Amino acid sequence: MREIVTALALCAVVLIAMVATTVSAAPARQIRKVGAADASKAGEGYPKTRQDVARKGGLPVSRQKQHTVPPPPPKPVLLYFYAAWAVPCKHQDPIYEKLKKEFGAKVEFKKIDVDKDPQLAKKYAVYSVPKFVLECNGKAIERWLGITTQQMFKSKLNKAIESCKAGHA
């Protein structure tokens, strides 16, 4: 009986040693190697040669020439702070809409209701409406308050467009 227990204990030790060796020798993760078997799948999206790569849309990114196109000049942003209940804003709205149609490609227009977005109104120190803020690159280049004529708007917007193109914002 003692011999059987000893033999079982010895088998258990050997088994534990084999498991420990196998676990420590196993790689942390398997890395798939690309070989001839993958190259045979060229019809399935795996290119075989550089010519195949070129036919499928160009060389790999590392071999493509990096062409940098300068970004377009920034557009000025006109922030129009208004309140739906304010009579001066109701008078200003038709002029604002005409300018939006005329300068829409050159200037970004944002109409902000101070009652719906009081945090933004506070950020721009809007205590009366209508208030206008012209920005370029996130910096205010001009602020004014009150009803503004269409001619004055055009003058201010054209000046802002030139300022943004020149990078003087």
Q: How would you sum up this structure, described in words?
A:
The protein is an alpha+beta fold and 169 residues long. The protein has a domain at 77-166: Glutaredoxin (3-Layer(aba) Sandwich), CATH 3.40.30. The chain is built from six helices and four strands; from the N terminus they run H-H-H-E-H-E-H-E-E-H. The protein has a four-stranded mixed β-sheet with strand order 2-1-3-4. The model has no long low-confidence stretch (mean pLDDT 78).
Which helices and strands, and how do they pair?
Elements: H1 2-25, H2 36-39, H3 50-55, E1 77-82, H4 87-103, E2 108-113, H5 118-123, E3 131-136, E4 139-145, H6 150-166
Parallel strand pairs: 1-2
Antiparallel strand pairs: 1-3, 3-4
Helix pairs in contact: 4-6
Q: How many beta-strand elements? A: 4
Integer average pLDDT: 78
Order of helices and strands: HHHEHEHEEH
Strand neighbour order, sheet with most strands: 2-1-3-4
> What is the general shape?
elongated
Question: From the 3D coordinates, which CATH architecture of the domain at 77-166 would you assign?
Answer: 3-Layer(aba) Sandwich
Instruction: Give the CATH H-level superfamily of the domain at 77-166.
Output: Glutaredoxin
CA-atom Rg in angstroms: 35 Å
Q: Give the low-pLDDT segments.
A: none
Observed structural traits:
single chain, 169 residues, alpha+beta, Glutaredoxin
Task: Put the structure in a nutshell.
This protein has 169 residues and is an alpha+beta fold. It contains six helices and four strands.
